[in-house]
Design a protein that fits this description.
Layout: E1 9-18, E2 21-31, E3 36-40, H1 47-54, E4 62-67, E5 70-71, H2 77-83, E6 85-88, H3 100-107, H4 114-119, H5 124-136, H6 152-164, E7 170-174, H7 182-195, E8 200-204, H8 208-214, E9 217-222, E10 225-230, H9 232-236, H10 239-253
Parallel strand pairs: 3-8, 3-9, 6-7, 7-8
Antiparallel strand pairs: 1-2, 1-4, 4-5, 9-10
Bound molecules: adenosine-5'-triphosphate.
Domain ABC transporter: 9-248
GO molecular function, one term: ATP hydrolysis activity
Organism: Chamaesiphon polymorphus CCALA 037
């Protein structure tokens, strides 16, 4: 069982308020080493806000975020990323006219500026790192392809690769399968499981089939609060979760 002492990432009684609107009303979350935590919940539950607050993109009104025991509450996004928390957003943010390889090169830790990065000498260590990331995201064969030639799903994997290139200990993914085909969605689940061999991963997701594929522990948010957490089975059979979320998902899917 993960607790605040053993957690890599620990969120305590976190509150986020937007112009008087309480988006998070005191949320706790502990993420263990190499654990996958999946966050589900209805639209507006506060899922993205929670990830934003962790990485310093939403101002925390009260409560704390700890990374490896250090209080990182309201530190700058840049600082938090450098410490080891990588965040992928919903929309791809890649350089379409560059190759997959060069996109990953740009994302490597300690790299500054597009021109300088691409013109700088490619060391064996950097090349090895990029190849290992390409392998992780299933794009070894596409390393020299322009990102513009890739499918939507493959672009999302490049973005995940760009997060991995920064050597984070914790990877935060906001709806990584949005807009993907079923095959791409499944492949994304397998990529995430491989990432979790040596990273902690927090995933926001709506697709329950995908959640079942990757989930170890599920946290359910509702109206800015944690409704419950547990295994897939525990969450799926929880009457409160069925009422506020899963029932609605099943109706939407019908
Ligand atoms: N910058 C902001 N300013 C004002 N309100 C915001 C801001 N960001 C989020 N909110 C509000 O906070 C609430 C939580 O939003 P959030 O995006 O975290 O929900 P979510 O659970 O990720 O939903 P979805 O599944 O639709 O992405 C929503 O009511 C949203 O309108």
């Amino acid at each position: 069982m993960v607790n605040a002492e053993s957690a890599v990432l620990s969120v305590k009684d976190l509150k986020v308020v937007f112009s008087g609107f309480k988006a998070l009303k005191g949320v706790d979350l502990d993420v263990g080493t190499n654990e996958i935590v999946t966050i589900i919940g209805p639209n507006g539950a506060g899922k993205s806000t929670l990830l934003d607050a962790i990485v310093g993109k939403s101002p925390v009104a009260s409560g704390n975020v700890y990374y490896k025991g250090q209080d990182i509450t309201n530190k700058s996004s840049y600082h938090i990323a450098r410490m080891g928390i990588g965040r992928k957003f919903q929309n791809p943010n890649v350089y379409n006219e560059l190759s997959v390889f060069d996109n990953l090169l740009l994302a490597l830790k300690g790299t500054h500026g597009v021109f300088a990065s691409i013109k700088a000498k490619l060391t064996a260590a950097k090349k090895e790192k990029i190849i290992s990331v390409l392998d992780r995201i299933g794009l070894l064969e596409k390393g020299y392809s322009k990102v513009s030639s890739l499918s939507h799903g493959q672009k999302q994997w490049v973005e995940i690769g760009m997060v991995l290139a920064q050597d984070p200990a914790v990877v935060l993914l906001d709806e990584p399968t949005a807009g993907m085909t079923p095959d791409e969605t499944y492949a994304t689940g397998e990529i995430i499981k491989t990432i979790a061999i040596d990273h902690s991963v927090v995933v926001i997701e709506h697709d329950m089939e995908f959640v079942k594929q990757i989930a170890q522990r599920i946290v359910v948010l509702h109206q800015g609060e944690k409704l419950t957490e547990g295994s897939v089975g525990e969450v799926q059979s929880n009457p409160k979760v069925i009422e506020v979320y899963l029932g609605r998902e099943q109706i939407d899917a019908a």
